[in-house]
Amino acid sequence: MNRWQNLWRFIPLFGLMMLLLTGCGSDTISALRPRGPVARDQLFLMKLSLGIMIVVVLVVFAIYIYVLVRFRKKKGDKDIIPKQVEGSHTLEIIWTVVPIILLLILAVPTVSYTIKLSENHIQNKDAVHVKVTAHQFWWQFDYPELGIATAQDLVIPAGKKIALEVTSADVLHSFWVPSLAGKQDTNVGMTNVMYFEADDAAVFLGKCAELCGASHALMDFKVVSKSDTDFTKWVDKMKTPAAIPAEAKAGEQVFKDNCLSCHAVNAQGLGFGPNLNGFATREMIAGVLDKGTNNDKNLHDWISNPQEVKPGNKMPAFGPTGAQPLKEQQINDLIKYLNALK
C-alpha cells in the first residue's frame, strides 16, 4: 500500500514534465503556428471546433455542479424525492435544438473550407507545379514545367501557390508540412492533389505522417521558401552543371564507378535513388544528419553504413564491412566530390 501511495506523489511531476515537453521542438513544424494561408484556414477550423467543445464542456459541468449543490442532502433533511422532470417538452426541445445549432456552426465553415482547400491548381498558370513521389525513406520532387528534379529539399518561391501532385513509389506514405498545410496521403498507383503557399522566405520541416517502415520517423524533408529572385537563381543553378575542382576529380570517378547507377547529378534527376544535383547546398544529409559548416564526418558515416543511420533504406554500405567496400581514401575523395555539387 505504501508503494502505491508513493507513486501518487509523482503524478504532479509527470504532469509538469508533459506540460514542459509540449513546448519542445521547432516552430516550423507546428500546425498552431501557421506560415501560409492554407495553414491559417485549417487552424481556424481547429479553433472553431475546440471552442465549441469547450463551451459544451463548461455548460455541462456548470449544470452538473449546480445540481450537486442545489439538490444535495442537507443536515436534517428527510428522505424525499425531488420533483421529477422527465417528459418535459421544453427541456427536450432545448437539448435537441442546441446541438443542431452547434453542429451547423461547425459544419458550414468546415464544408466551405474543405471545398476551398481541395481545389485543383494544377492548371493554374500562376502556380508552381511540383510532382511529389514518396520512397522508402526519401522524397523526390519533380518540377515538370521547369525541367528540373531534386530530392529531400522542396524549394519554392514565397508568396506563390504551390500545386502538388503526390504519389508513392512503394508503400503508403503521407506528405505533411504542418506550418504550411495539412497532410495528404501518397498512394501507389494513385495521384492526389493539394496546394499551399508560404508567407515569406524560410525553411519549414516536413515529415511522413503515415507509418511506412523501419525508418518512418526519419523520413523527413525540408521546404525551402525563397524570394522570387533567389528561386530563379536556384533554378538556373540546378540547370547548370557543377564546376568540379581539380581536387574533386578523383571523387568524381569514384562516384561514376559506384554511385551513378542509382544517383543522377543532372537537372532532370533520372535515377533509382535521390538526385544529388545541388547536394552541397541541401539542408541535411539523407534528411536526418546535420550538414552545418563541416559535414564530412556525418557524410562519411552515411556512406560507410547507411543502415545504421536510417534502417531499412535501399542504399548499400560502402564501409570496410559493406557489400561494396571502398578504401578510406576513396570515401574521402567521394566526400570532396559531393561537397562540390553546388
From TrEMBL:
It comes from Paenibacillus foliorum. Its cofactor is Cu cation. Residues 246-342 form the Cytochrome c domain. GO terms for molecular function: copper ion binding; cytochrome-c oxidase activity; heme binding; oxidoreductase activity. This is Cytochrome c oxidase subunit 2. Residues 20-121 form the Cytochrome oxidase subunit II transmembrane region profile domain. The keyword Oxidoreductase applies. It catalyses: 4 Fe(II)-[cytochrome c] + O2 + 8 H(+)(in) = 4 Fe(III)-[cytochrome c] + 2 H2O + 4 H(+)(out). Residues 125-237 form the Cytochrome oxidase subunit II copper A binding domain. Pfam families: COX2, COX2_TM, Cytochrom_C. The gene is coxB. Subunits I and II form the functional core of the enzyme complex. Electrons originating in cytochrome c are transferred via heme a and Cu(A) to the binuclear center formed by heme a3 and Cu(B).
